Amino acid sequence: MKVPISPEPPRWADRFLEWYCRSELLEEIQGDAYELFDKRLIANGYKAARRAFVWDVLRSFRLSTIRRITYKFSSDMYKSNFKIAWRSLVKHKMYSAIKIGGFAIGIAACLLIALFIKDELSYDSNYPEAERIYRVVAETTEGEFAGQGVDFPAPFAKALKDEFPEFEKVARINPNSLFTGGGNPIRRIEAAQNTYEEGFTFADQELLDILQIKMIYGDRKHALDEPNTIVISERKAQQYFPNENPVGKMLITNDNKDKPVKIGGVMANFPSTSHLQYDFLISMKGVEFYNGEQSNWGASNYHTYVLLKPGVDIAKLEKKMFSVIVHKYLGAQMSKTELELVERSSRLYLQPIRDIHLHSAEIHDGMRHGDIRFVWLFGAIAGFILLIACINFVNLSTARSSNRAKEVGLRKTVGSSRGALIGQFLSESLLFSWFSFVLGVLLAWALLPYFNQLSGKTLQFPWLAWWFLPMMVLACLFVGMLAGLYPAFYLSGFNPINVLKGKLSKGSSNANLRSALVVFQFTTSIVLIIGTLIVTRQMNFILHKKLGFDKEQVLLLNGTQTLGDNLPAFKNRLQQLPMVQSVAVSDYLPIAESKRNGNEFWEAGKDKEGNSSGTQIWQVDSGYIPTLGMKIVEGRNFSTAMKSDSQGVIINQALAKKLNLAPALGKRITNGGQSYQVIGVVEDFHFESLRENIGGMCLVLGNSSNVVSVKIKGQDMQKAIQQISAIWKDLAPTQPIRTTFLDDSYAKMYADVRRMGYIFSNFAILAIVVACLGLFALSTYLAEQRRKEIGIRKVLGASVGSVMGLLVRNFLVLILISLFIAVPTAWYLMQKWLEDFVYRYHIRGDVFFLAGFSVILIALLTISVQALRSALSNPLDSLRNE
Amino acid sequence: MHRIHLGEFEELTLLFVAVLHGNAYGVAVMEEIEQQTGRAVNISAVHAALRRLEEKGYVNSEWSEATAQRGGRRKRLFSITQAGRAALEQSRDTYLKLWEQIPGMAPKISFS
Questions:
Q1: What's the number of CA atoms in the CB half-sphere (13 Å) around residue A33?
Q2: pTM, entire model
Q3: End-to-end CA distance of chain A
């Protein structure tokens, strides 16, 4: 190191010494240190002297040398702070009410949403080995099967277990309704009457082991390891076997008297935060749904869950898994090009069980899931509302600064330090925050049932949870500080001389910041309002879209296969009812959660080059097309009179186009096994969600007897249902009748859209209410500030209108700016959301116009109340004092 | 007579304040200790001892004139008080008394 011309000790050490050292000791200590430095400089050189200096400084840092902490705790001071805060709160009742009310609304919204998010994030985390449990997912990026799925062939699980020592346990479930998963009639063996229950699935014994499900009765290790055993949930055990141990008892499912199932155990109910929601687990042991099914690699119906051994490299395992399964097990059945395609475009991966709930939007697994985007959206909205509420606080505090300015000036003059003033204002803010939290928590508690409806949850208010109270107190302190910090520093920074001279221009200082905050509030509100409008429009679009079928007035009777041989008679008797227009028997319906399949079709005699895999082939009867109100654009409907129609097919326009069949009538199409002659073309109808394109469709005559659809004439649905039920009771006295309406089932497909609409509209209302509260208080205050000015103007002849204009103009400009920012933001965000739908509402300008107009109207009304009062006031009142 | 609490290092420091007679300040005391006893002492220790001695009333201090040295900072000059002298004497007497009680060990030094 070069020695400077006038060598000095290290600056930082010197500074540090000056910072910590008590002033009365500083000169001595610093002087001695400098003297030593000079001496050592000569004796030992620059570097050593500097080192020694630092050492001296550090060694001098002792309890006896450091400054006394000047801040002294005094409970009196706090008492006084809070007393003054309380007085100011009580004195300005309206401001206080608005501040506290707005804050409370924000807090309640935030709290509810926090509960929601916490619940969403806690899915599937309660299993003892949760971090080692995975679900196997297959992803394909090319071809008609592109997408992610969790259905695997029956022998897949065994292959995993045999090939890879990394898996500790592998379990399958098969909830597919093709194999009587889902909903079934059930009864105790000694009972006559069946009850319809949902939540059936076939499952391996290993599932219980992997999840370590708690058992109420029976041995978990052997509950499902025998053929024809069933494990039922606690709630169902209570229902069917109240107050007894049902292990070993018999149940009859699907009215199948020959094959009763034995109860192997009673498991604890799946918690509401589980993606698996089953009440009946039927053992897979010895089950084969058709000949050779258990060793068939061609049909995929099994969800596969695995428990990994600790410390497995997952990425490596996924690769190995894919390669072995494809080459050793699937390769035999594929051509070389097919194999190449699979290798190029597919992979297997392991999805952690905790991710299933929120990260399965892309995965087709037939379950209802949350969506991480939804969680984010919710959180963002909550944050914004809290922010709007905080902004009210800041705005009102700074706007009223001139009222407090004199207080500040006087306090400073009589010797109050800035720190004490900041403490004073922060106490005030904390007091507000405290009231707001109490109110907000109560509000959230009161609104929880409503919120549960909104979010489709069953949340409980966590009064007793260990984290709740401490969290609330911490949040109260934090929010109180956050909202109070700016006003505290702003207000305490006044110069007492100016203030006491009356120089502080009233309420106008910091108008810029205030304006910016108002703009922020209204931008948020407008974005939410536009969001509400667009979601509502999309929902209307969905509900009123011409679907290619008529969903109104169609009653669905489920579970009709239990009628057995009586089904034709049932159909006949229904058709004789005067209120029934037509009847169709088919499991396949154009709504989600009804039966589906997928086939390859091509024109007979040609190459199967047409890309037509994934084509639906639906077994229907001749009543199907009239009952669902579909339109035949070419050819004719099936006819019961023509025997040859059993070889006939009615295709949709999409398939005709895909296979290039023009004209289609008379052409033969085949799926390899069977060929059909096209006798008609039906207009395209939406049989999947509007999020997807319409695919190919073949309607053929066939037997699928689970669902009977009835088109009703006239308005009296109640009567129609009664008559239909009477016939049902006659033919199937032991079976429950289950009816739904086609339009209801259709609307259910879009429950998420509807929910999004509710959420948007509710929070839009909250946001605009809070923002308007703030605007109201702000305009009131500013109008008060200008009382004298208004008085003088009126004396000089200003009209009520011009005074109104004066008061309203500023705010109107702010709201127009908000509109200007909000419109493109909202447009962008909602466009992104709408992209989920292939068929969607096209955003038009009127949405923005409507939103803008309503916000301006609401804001104007809010401001006008006060502006009008000021404008109409007698100038004498305001000028009398001069 | 109240008990005096004079730590070993305090006593040493007090002795050197007396020895340096009117010229005792932090650095000087430190150097003197180092030279005469061969003990390596940090300046902060000397300061602390001087502060404690002043609190006990055994030394007084006053500021010297400012000079160009020490960055223009004044020295704090310590001088021993009457009480300090008494404390030293008492300490010495105690030691002597104890020395005399050790068999066959007559004190070699004598005070005038």
A1: 30
A2: 0.69
A3: 75
